[in-house]
Amino acid sequence: MLDQPATGHRPRRSIHPPFPRILCAVDGTQATDAAIAQAIAVADGDARIAFATSWYGAHTSADERVREAVERAVVRAREAGVEARADSFHAPRLGDGLLAATAAHDLVVVGAHSHSRATGIVLGETATQLVHRCAVPVLVARDRPLSAGIVVATRAQPTDRAALAAGTHLAARLGAELTVVHVLERDEDARRPELSAELANARALLGRSIDYFQDSGPAPRAIVTAAEGDGAGLVVVGSDGRRGLSALASVSERVAHLAPCSVLVMRGR
Length: 269
Hints:
The protein contains 9 helices and 11 strands. It folds into 2 domains: about 20-140, 3-Layer(aba) Sandwich (Rossmann fold); about 145-265, Rossmann fold (3-Layer(aba) Sandwich). The relative contact order is 0.17. The radius of gyration is 18 Å and the shape is globular. By secondary structure, the protein is α/β, with parallel strands linked by helices.
């Protein structure tokens, strides 16, 4: 990794988004435990977590096992000093209930599934549904601990400020190494002042050095390669909220499915 570029820019005041109200999906799959652990890990201060499941029609033994998992998650969070509660949505799919509740939350945490992005779309997988449609940040959780390292992707656009700030905040909280990946684009010269200012702001917030890496290849590949090379536990990437056919080219959605670690998709706000 390259050293952070020198800059004469004065650091701006931190705009890192706190996550005081976290909604965590509990669906009984193997990935649920990672979602629970990481919801607790990112909670700080007076944050509150709602561990949620869904039910539709008659309750089954599988539903009962999921509700028990929710209750165990609540106990686990409280033992870690985090305020938590159980929640349940009456919805045919858990993703539908989570989407309906996003207005009251600042972050949604969901376990990753093992399917490809295309299969996830067809099957209506919860993680795929949330990354595509959710209006608030989404953390797609995988087993690797977040403290293993954090990679933040930036295009050096104002819409990426939330991603860089969130990644820096989490690196500071978890004591993780921070790597900033910048994928070069055609108007690179025009983006340089924004990049320099954001790196200076991140270094001021973190209080230590930041690794910096740039690549000219396809953005999803460059970001995933950086995460693999660093052995990172988390990739943070911004999203401009594409919908429909235009989302087929979405970098954030592709990274969320391809990355070997957890992915936090930040929304510009």
